[in-house]
Each structure stands twice: as structure tokens, then as C-alpha cells.
Amino acid sequence: MDNWRKSSYSGEGDGNECVEIANSPTHTAVRDSKVPARATLTFPAKAFAPFLEALKAQP
User: Fold this and answer.
1) DSSP 3-state assignment of 48?
2) CA 7: distance to chain centroid?
3) Which of 4, 7, 43, 45 could be cross-linked to 20 through a Cys-Cys bond (beta carbons 3.0 to 4.6 Å apart)?
């Protein structure tokens, strides 16, 4: 995946305190912006929205 983008919440400068995501028609990938060459988490596209909702529900 080539189209990595950072969260709008990452702040000014390099935005080193965030994750990046990339979308394809079938999958969404997530990686740490500090070490982009390391492993990514990859989700089926239909599973990513429920994953985000579960994260938002955490206290």
C-alpha cells in the first residue's frame, strides 16, 4: 500500500505521535508513524469501522 496518511490529530511538524492508515478496495492497514518500516496491522475493509468503534468505546 502506497497511500499512507496521518491523522489530522497528529499535530504540527513530523507528527511523530500518531498512526498512519492506508486503504485499498479490500483492506485497511495501520502502522506506527515513528517506525513505518516495521509491521503493519491489516484489516479486511469491512472490519475496520467496527474496530474503530470498539476503540472509541474504551474508557
Assistant:
1) helix
2) 8
3) 4
